[in-house]
Amino acid sequence: MTTLPLTTGPLPTRPTMSLPMPRAQPVVGHLGRWGRDPLGLIEEGARLGPVFGLRLWRRAVLGYSPAWNRFVLGDLPTFRSAGSMSGLCPYLGAGVVQLDAPAHQRRRRELNPAFARGAVNALSGQMLEVIARCLPAGSFNAVTWSAALMREILGVTFLGGQVSRRLLGDFLRPLDRPLPSPFLRRPVLFHRMDQVLGQRIARAPAGTLAAAFRDLPDGVAELRVAISAGYDTTAHTLAWLLAHVAQQPQFRAPERRSSVIDEVLRLYPAGWMGSRRCAADTRFGEIAIRRGTLVLYSPYLTHRDPLLWADPLSFRPERFENPVPAWGLIPFAAGERTCLGRSFARLVLSSVLDAMAGAELRFAGGDLRPRAGITLAPAGPLHLELRR
Measured between alpha carbons, how far is 32 from 322 in angstroms, rounded to an integer? Predict the structure, then answer.
Protein backbone atom coordinates (compact mmCIF):
# COMPACT_ATOMS: atom_id res chain seq x y z
CA MET A 1 0.00 0.00 0.00
CA THR A 2 1.18 3.51 -0.79
CA THR A 3 -0.20 6.83 0.34
CA LEU A 4 -1.34 9.79 -1.68
CA PRO A 5 -0.65 13.26 -0.25
CA LEU A 6 -3.74 15.12 -1.34
CA THR A 7 -2.40 18.65 -1.16
CA THR A 8 0.67 20.40 -2.54
CA GLY A 9 0.58 23.41 -0.23
CA PRO A 10 -0.88 24.36 3.12
CA LEU A 11 -4.55 25.00 3.61
CA PRO A 12 -5.42 27.49 6.35
CA THR A 13 -6.83 24.70 8.52
CA ARG A 14 -5.62 21.56 10.23
CA PRO A 15 -2.76 19.41 8.84
CA THR A 16 -3.47 17.13 5.89
CA MET A 17 -3.67 13.38 6.30
CA SER A 18 -2.06 11.17 3.65
CA LEU A 19 -4.58 8.90 2.00
CA PRO A 20 -4.06 5.17 1.54
CA MET A 21 -3.90 4.08 -2.05
CA PRO A 22 -4.30 0.66 -3.78
CA ARG A 23 -1.40 -0.90 -5.64
CA ALA A 24 -0.39 1.32 -8.55
CA GLN A 25 1.79 0.80 -11.61
CA PRO A 26 4.74 3.04 -12.44
CA VAL A 27 3.93 5.99 -14.68
CA VAL A 28 0.28 5.03 -15.39
CA GLY A 29 -0.76 4.78 -11.75
CA HIS A 30 -4.20 3.12 -11.55
CA LEU A 31 -5.31 3.73 -15.14
CA GLY A 32 -4.44 0.20 -16.26
CA ARG A 33 -6.33 -1.44 -13.44
CA TRP A 34 -9.22 0.99 -13.90
CA GLY A 35 -9.57 -0.17 -17.49
CA ARG A 36 -9.21 -3.89 -16.73
CA ASP A 37 -10.91 -4.40 -13.38
CA PRO A 38 -12.29 -1.23 -11.80
CA LEU A 39 -14.41 -3.13 -9.26
CA GLY A 40 -11.39 -5.08 -8.02
CA LEU A 41 -9.44 -1.83 -7.79
CA ILE A 42 -12.00 0.04 -5.71
CA GLU A 43 -12.70 -3.01 -3.53
CA GLU A 44 -8.99 -3.12 -2.70
CA GLY A 45 -9.12 0.58 -1.89
CA ALA A 46 -12.15 0.10 0.34
CA ARG A 47 -10.23 -2.43 2.42
CA LEU A 48 -7.71 0.31 3.19
CA GLY A 49 -10.24 2.72 4.65
CA PRO A 50 -13.46 4.66 4.00
CA VAL A 51 -11.58 7.28 1.95
CA PHE A 52 -8.67 6.47 -0.35
CA GLY A 53 -6.73 7.98 -3.20
CA LEU A 54 -6.43 7.00 -6.86
CA ARG A 55 -4.06 8.07 -9.63
CA LEU A 56 -6.18 8.16 -12.77
CA TRP A 57 -5.80 10.71 -15.58
CA ARG A 58 -5.84 13.17 -12.69
CA ARG A 59 -5.56 12.71 -8.96
CA ALA A 60 -8.75 11.45 -7.40
CA VAL A 61 -10.17 10.72 -3.98
CA LEU A 62 -12.91 8.16 -3.41
CA GLY A 63 -15.08 7.69 -0.33
CA TYR A 64 -18.13 5.54 0.34
CA SER A 65 -19.41 6.18 3.86
CA PRO A 66 -22.83 7.83 4.37
CA ALA A 67 -21.03 10.88 5.75
CA TRP A 68 -18.94 11.11 2.59
CA ASN A 69 -22.01 10.71 0.36
CA ARG A 70 -23.75 13.55 2.19
CA PHE A 71 -20.58 15.66 2.01
CA VAL A 72 -20.24 15.28 -1.78
CA LEU A 73 -23.87 15.12 -2.89
CA GLY A 74 -25.10 17.79 -0.54
CA ASP A 75 -22.71 20.58 -1.59
CA LEU A 76 -23.48 21.54 -5.19
CA PRO A 77 -21.39 24.74 -5.28
CA THR A 78 -18.19 22.95 -4.21
CA PHE A 79 -18.61 19.65 -6.08
CA ARG A 80 -19.41 20.35 -9.71
CA SER A 81 -20.43 18.18 -12.65
CA ALA A 82 -18.39 20.16 -15.16
CA GLY A 83 -15.07 18.35 -15.47
CA SER A 84 -16.36 15.07 -13.98
CA MET A 85 -16.28 11.63 -15.60
CA SER A 86 -19.74 11.89 -17.16
CA GLY A 87 -18.51 14.67 -19.43
CA LEU A 88 -16.11 12.20 -21.10
CA CYS A 89 -19.02 10.19 -22.52
CA PRO A 90 -20.82 11.73 -25.52
CA TYR A 91 -24.06 10.10 -24.40
CA LEU A 92 -24.00 12.04 -21.12
CA GLY A 93 -21.99 15.12 -22.06
CA ALA A 94 -24.87 17.58 -22.27
CA GLY A 95 -28.16 18.55 -20.67
CA VAL A 96 -29.08 18.61 -17.01
CA VAL A 97 -26.41 15.97 -16.28
CA GLN A 98 -23.71 18.56 -16.99
CA LEU A 99 -25.37 21.69 -15.63
CA ASP A 100 -24.17 23.16 -12.34
CA ALA A 101 -25.79 25.58 -9.91
CA PRO A 102 -27.71 27.75 -10.45
CA ALA A 103 -28.59 26.60 -13.99
CA HIS A 104 -29.10 23.04 -12.74
CA GLN A 105 -31.86 24.02 -10.32
CA ARG A 106 -33.68 25.97 -13.02
CA ARG A 107 -33.55 23.05 -15.45
CA ARG A 108 -34.74 20.62 -12.79
CA ARG A 109 -37.75 22.84 -12.09
CA GLU A 110 -38.59 22.68 -15.78
CA LEU A 111 -38.24 18.90 -16.05
CA ASN A 112 -39.45 17.69 -12.65
CA PRO A 113 -43.20 17.82 -13.48
CA ALA A 114 -42.83 15.44 -16.44
CA PHE A 115 -40.79 12.95 -14.40
CA ALA A 116 -42.74 13.12 -11.14
CA ARG A 117 -44.23 9.84 -9.96
CA GLY A 118 -47.81 10.76 -10.85
CA ALA A 119 -46.92 11.88 -14.37
CA VAL A 120 -44.78 8.80 -14.98
CA ASN A 121 -47.47 6.45 -13.64
CA ALA A 122 -49.76 7.78 -16.36
CA LEU A 123 -47.46 5.99 -18.82
CA SER A 124 -48.11 2.57 -17.26
CA GLY A 125 -50.72 1.64 -19.85
CA GLN A 126 -48.33 2.30 -22.71
CA MET A 127 -45.58 0.36 -20.93
CA LEU A 128 -47.80 -2.66 -20.31
CA GLU A 129 -48.87 -2.75 -23.96
CA VAL A 130 -45.24 -2.77 -25.08
CA ILE A 131 -44.25 -5.42 -22.54
CA ALA A 132 -47.18 -7.68 -23.46
CA ARG A 133 -46.20 -7.44 -27.14
CA CYS A 134 -42.55 -8.25 -26.35
CA LEU A 135 -42.93 -11.02 -23.76
CA PRO A 136 -40.68 -13.97 -24.60
CA ALA A 137 -41.89 -17.51 -24.98
CA GLY A 138 -39.65 -20.30 -23.74
CA SER A 139 -35.92 -19.78 -23.34
CA PHE A 140 -34.42 -16.30 -23.50
CA ASN A 141 -31.37 -14.33 -22.40
CA ALA A 142 -32.57 -11.79 -19.85
CA VAL A 143 -29.73 -9.40 -20.69
CA THR A 144 -30.44 -9.06 -24.42
CA TRP A 145 -34.22 -9.27 -23.98
CA SER A 146 -34.24 -6.51 -21.35
CA ALA A 147 -32.17 -4.28 -23.63
CA ALA A 148 -34.51 -4.85 -26.57
CA LEU A 149 -37.54 -4.21 -24.37
CA MET A 150 -36.10 -0.94 -23.09
CA ARG A 151 -35.50 0.28 -26.63
CA GLU A 152 -39.17 -0.40 -27.37
CA ILE A 153 -40.39 1.27 -24.16
CA LEU A 154 -38.25 4.36 -24.71
CA GLY A 155 -39.36 4.59 -28.31
CA VAL A 156 -43.03 4.60 -27.32
CA THR A 157 -43.09 6.57 -24.06
CA PHE A 158 -40.59 9.22 -25.09
CA LEU A 159 -41.18 9.41 -28.81
CA GLY A 160 -44.66 8.05 -29.48
CA GLY A 161 -43.27 5.22 -31.61
CA GLN A 162 -42.30 7.75 -34.29
CA VAL A 163 -38.57 6.92 -34.51
CA SER A 164 -37.41 3.90 -36.48
CA ARG A 165 -36.31 0.91 -34.42
CA ARG A 166 -33.18 0.64 -36.52
CA LEU A 167 -32.01 4.18 -35.82
CA LEU A 168 -32.82 3.99 -32.11
CA GLY A 169 -31.03 0.63 -31.88
CA ASP A 170 -27.97 1.90 -33.75
CA PHE A 171 -27.82 4.88 -31.42
CA LEU A 172 -28.22 2.99 -28.13
CA ARG A 173 -26.37 -0.30 -28.71
CA PRO A 174 -22.87 1.12 -28.06
CA LEU A 175 -24.03 1.53 -24.45
CA ASP A 176 -24.41 -2.27 -24.26
CA ARG A 177 -20.82 -2.89 -25.23
CA PRO A 178 -17.71 -2.94 -23.01
CA LEU A 179 -15.44 0.07 -22.69
CA PRO A 180 -14.35 2.07 -24.59
CA SER A 181 -17.39 1.79 -26.89
CA PRO A 182 -19.69 4.22 -24.97
CA PHE A 183 -16.91 6.85 -24.96
CA LEU A 184 -16.24 6.84 -28.71
CA ARG A 185 -17.44 9.85 -30.67
CA ARG A 186 -20.02 9.08 -33.37
CA PRO A 187 -20.76 12.48 -34.91
CA VAL A 188 -22.69 11.21 -37.96
CA LEU A 189 -24.93 8.95 -35.87
CA PHE A 190 -25.54 11.67 -33.29
CA HIS A 191 -26.36 14.16 -36.04
CA ARG A 192 -28.92 11.77 -37.56
CA MET A 193 -30.43 11.15 -34.13
CA ASP A 194 -30.60 14.86 -33.33
CA GLN A 195 -32.38 15.60 -36.60
CA VAL A 196 -35.06 13.02 -35.86
CA LEU A 197 -35.42 14.09 -32.23
CA GLY A 198 -35.86 17.70 -33.30
CA GLN A 199 -38.69 16.66 -35.59
CA ARG A 200 -40.30 14.56 -32.87
CA ILE A 201 -40.10 17.35 -30.28
CA ALA A 202 -41.74 19.79 -32.67
CA ARG A 203 -44.63 17.36 -33.21
CA ALA A 204 -44.53 15.56 -29.85
CA PRO A 205 -47.73 13.53 -29.39
CA ALA A 206 -49.78 14.10 -26.26
CA GLY A 207 -48.83 11.71 -23.50
CA THR A 208 -45.18 11.32 -24.55
CA LEU A 209 -42.22 12.57 -22.58
CA ALA A 210 -40.78 14.35 -25.63
CA ALA A 211 -43.29 17.15 -25.09
CA ALA A 212 -41.49 18.07 -21.85
CA PHE A 213 -38.43 19.09 -23.87
CA ARG A 214 -40.19 21.21 -26.50
CA ASP A 215 -39.63 24.63 -24.93
CA LEU A 216 -36.09 24.08 -23.66
CA PRO A 217 -33.36 26.00 -25.51
CA ASP A 218 -31.31 22.80 -25.88
CA GLY A 219 -34.26 20.42 -25.83
CA VAL A 220 -32.84 18.05 -28.46
CA ALA A 221 -29.61 17.44 -26.52
CA GLU A 222 -31.56 17.17 -23.27
CA LEU A 223 -33.90 14.56 -24.77
CA ARG A 224 -31.00 12.63 -26.27
CA VAL A 225 -29.28 12.45 -22.89
CA ALA A 226 -32.51 11.44 -21.12
CA ILE A 227 -33.06 8.52 -23.51
CA SER A 228 -29.43 7.44 -23.19
CA ALA A 229 -29.40 7.66 -19.39
CA GLY A 230 -32.59 5.63 -19.08
CA TYR A 231 -31.55 2.83 -21.40
CA ASP A 232 -28.80 0.51 -20.20
CA THR A 233 -29.23 1.46 -16.55
CA THR A 234 -32.81 0.15 -16.48
CA ALA A 235 -32.15 -2.76 -18.84
CA HIS A 236 -29.33 -4.15 -16.70
CA THR A 237 -31.32 -3.73 -13.49
CA LEU A 238 -34.28 -5.54 -15.07
CA ALA A 239 -32.07 -8.47 -16.14
CA TRP A 240 -30.82 -8.94 -12.58
CA LEU A 241 -34.33 -8.59 -11.16
CA LEU A 242 -35.68 -11.32 -13.44
CA ALA A 243 -32.76 -13.62 -12.67
CA HIS A 244 -33.34 -13.34 -8.92
CA VAL A 245 -37.12 -13.74 -8.94
CA ALA A 246 -36.71 -16.71 -11.30
CA GLN A 247 -34.55 -18.41 -8.66
CA GLN A 248 -36.76 -17.41 -5.72
CA PRO A 249 -40.40 -17.33 -6.90
CA GLN A 250 -41.65 -16.15 -3.49
CA PHE A 251 -40.21 -12.75 -4.32
CA ARG A 252 -42.71 -12.28 -7.15
CA ALA A 253 -45.55 -11.68 -4.68
CA PRO A 254 -46.96 -8.15 -5.18
CA GLU A 255 -46.63 -7.30 -1.50
CA ARG A 256 -42.87 -7.98 -1.66
CA ARG A 257 -42.21 -6.17 -4.92
CA SER A 258 -40.96 -2.87 -3.53
CA SER A 259 -38.41 -4.51 -1.22
CA VAL A 260 -37.26 -6.88 -3.99
CA ILE A 261 -36.65 -3.96 -6.34
CA ASP A 262 -34.83 -2.10 -3.56
CA GLU A 263 -32.59 -5.10 -2.97
CA VAL A 264 -31.72 -5.38 -6.67
CA LEU A 265 -30.89 -1.68 -6.72
CA ARG A 266 -28.78 -2.09 -3.59
CA LEU A 267 -26.77 -5.06 -4.81
CA TYR A 268 -26.43 -3.92 -8.43
CA PRO A 269 -26.56 -0.11 -8.61
CA ALA A 270 -26.35 0.74 -12.32
CA GLY A 271 -24.54 3.96 -11.49
CA TRP A 272 -21.78 2.14 -9.62
CA MET A 273 -19.57 5.23 -9.54
CA GLY A 274 -20.35 8.94 -9.39
CA SER A 275 -17.91 11.79 -9.83
CA ARG A 276 -17.58 15.51 -9.26
CA ARG A 277 -14.83 18.06 -9.72
CA CYS A 278 -13.88 19.97 -6.60
CA ALA A 279 -14.32 23.68 -7.38
CA ALA A 280 -12.72 25.07 -4.21
CA ASP A 281 -10.33 23.93 -1.51
CA THR A 282 -12.31 22.08 1.13
CA ARG A 283 -11.94 19.54 3.90
CA PHE A 284 -13.54 16.28 4.98
CA GLY A 285 -12.60 15.81 8.62
CA GLU A 286 -8.80 15.69 8.67
CA ILE A 287 -8.58 15.26 4.90
CA ALA A 288 -7.83 18.37 2.85
CA ILE A 289 -9.11 18.30 -0.73
CA ARG A 290 -7.58 20.63 -3.28
CA ARG A 291 -9.49 22.54 -5.92
CA GLY A 292 -9.48 20.57 -9.20
CA THR A 293 -9.40 17.14 -7.52
CA LEU A 294 -11.66 14.48 -9.02
CA VAL A 295 -13.96 13.52 -6.14
CA LEU A 296 -15.65 10.11 -6.40
CA TYR A 297 -18.45 8.38 -4.52
CA SER A 298 -19.46 4.78 -5.11
CA PRO A 299 -22.98 3.41 -4.54
CA TYR A 300 -21.46 -0.02 -5.27
CA LEU A 301 -19.11 0.22 -2.28
CA THR A 302 -21.66 1.90 -0.02
CA HIS A 303 -24.28 -0.76 -0.74
CA ARG A 304 -21.86 -3.59 0.00
CA ASP A 305 -20.37 -2.13 3.18
CA PRO A 306 -20.76 -4.67 6.03
CA LEU A 307 -20.84 -1.80 8.52
CA LEU A 308 -24.13 -0.68 6.94
CA TRP A 309 -25.66 -3.92 5.66
CA ALA A 310 -25.71 -7.31 7.37
CA ASP A 311 -24.47 -10.07 5.05
CA PRO A 312 -24.19 -7.48 2.25
CA LEU A 313 -23.42 -9.88 -0.62
CA SER A 314 -26.57 -11.95 -0.08
CA PHE A 315 -29.87 -11.21 -1.78
CA ARG A 316 -32.17 -10.50 1.18
CA PRO A 317 -35.14 -8.24 0.38
CA GLU A 318 -36.43 -8.66 3.92
CA ARG A 319 -33.70 -6.28 5.08
CA PHE A 320 -35.94 -3.45 3.83
CA GLU A 321 -38.52 -4.23 6.48
CA ASN A 322 -36.27 -2.07 8.69
CA PRO A 323 -35.19 1.55 8.10
CA VAL A 324 -32.25 1.94 5.72
CA PRO A 325 -29.13 3.91 6.68
CA ALA A 326 -29.43 7.60 5.84
CA TRP A 327 -27.29 8.31 2.75
CA GLY A 328 -26.52 4.59 2.70
CA LEU A 329 -28.84 3.61 -0.17
CA ILE A 330 -28.15 5.82 -3.19
CA PRO A 331 -28.85 3.87 -6.42
CA PHE A 332 -30.17 7.07 -7.99
CA ALA A 333 -27.67 9.36 -6.22
CA ALA A 334 -29.27 11.70 -3.65
CA GLY A 335 -29.99 15.31 -2.81
CA GLU A 336 -30.81 17.90 -5.46
CA ARG A 337 -29.15 15.84 -8.20
CA THR A 338 -31.18 12.68 -7.57
CA CYS A 339 -31.77 10.93 -10.90
CA LEU A 340 -34.78 12.34 -12.76
CA GLY A 341 -35.64 8.91 -14.10
CA ARG A 342 -35.95 7.04 -10.80
CA SER A 343 -39.77 6.79 -10.93
CA PHE A 344 -39.64 5.81 -14.61
CA ALA A 345 -37.14 3.02 -13.91
CA ARG A 346 -39.10 1.62 -10.97
CA LEU A 347 -42.30 1.65 -13.04
CA VAL A 348 -40.61 -0.36 -15.79
CA LEU A 349 -39.36 -2.96 -13.30
CA SER A 350 -42.73 -3.28 -11.60
CA SER A 351 -44.64 -3.39 -14.89
CA VAL A 352 -42.56 -6.30 -16.21
CA LEU A 353 -43.31 -8.28 -13.06
CA ASP A 354 -47.01 -7.45 -13.50
CA ALA A 355 -46.93 -8.71 -17.08
CA MET A 356 -45.28 -11.97 -16.03
CA ALA A 357 -47.66 -12.64 -13.14
CA GLY A 358 -49.16 -16.11 -13.41
CA ALA A 359 -46.45 -17.38 -15.75
CA GLU A 360 -43.70 -19.80 -14.73
CA LEU A 361 -40.28 -18.14 -14.74
CA ARG A 362 -37.26 -20.39 -14.29
CA PHE A 363 -33.54 -19.65 -14.02
CA ALA A 364 -31.60 -21.92 -16.40
CA GLY A 365 -28.10 -20.59 -15.71
CA GLY A 366 -25.82 -17.65 -16.18
CA ASP A 367 -23.29 -15.33 -14.65
CA LEU A 368 -24.66 -13.01 -11.96
CA ARG A 369 -21.31 -11.36 -11.30
CA PRO A 370 -21.26 -7.63 -12.08
CA ARG A 371 -19.07 -6.10 -14.77
CA ALA A 372 -18.34 -2.39 -14.55
CA GLY A 373 -18.41 -0.27 -17.66
CA ILE A 374 -20.16 3.04 -18.00
CA THR A 375 -22.86 1.29 -15.95
CA LEU A 376 -22.91 -1.93 -13.95
CA ALA A 377 -23.90 -4.88 -16.14
CA PRO A 378 -24.11 -8.67 -15.74
CA ALA A 379 -20.78 -10.26 -16.62
CA GLY A 380 -22.43 -12.71 -19.02
CA PRO A 381 -25.76 -14.02 -20.31
CA LEU A 382 -28.58 -14.80 -17.88
CA HIS A 383 -30.59 -17.70 -19.32
CA LEU A 384 -34.22 -17.91 -18.22
CA GLU A 385 -37.37 -19.72 -19.33
CA LEU A 386 -40.86 -18.24 -19.35
CA ARG A 387 -43.80 -20.63 -19.65
CA ARG A 388 -47.27 -19.14 -20.02
Answer: 41
pLDDT tens-digit series, residues 179-231:
889 999 999 999 999 999 999 999 887 778 999 999 898 999 999 999 999 99
Residue 208 structural domain:
2-387
224 bridge partner residues: none
> Cα–Cα distance between 241 and 220 in angstroms, integer?
32
Q: Which value, in Å, is the radius of gyration of the alpha carbons in the chain?
A: 21
Peptide linkage before 15 cis (omega within 30 of 0): no
Query: pLDDT tens for residues 135-150?
Result: 999 999 999 999 999 9
Count Cβ atoms below 10 Å from residue 133 Cβ, excluding itself: 11
Domain with 184 in it: what CATH number?
A: 1.10.630.10
**Burial zone of 9 (CB within 10 Å; 0-12 exposed, 13-18 middle, 19+ buried):** exposed
Total count of domains within the chain: 1
Amino acid at site 253 = A
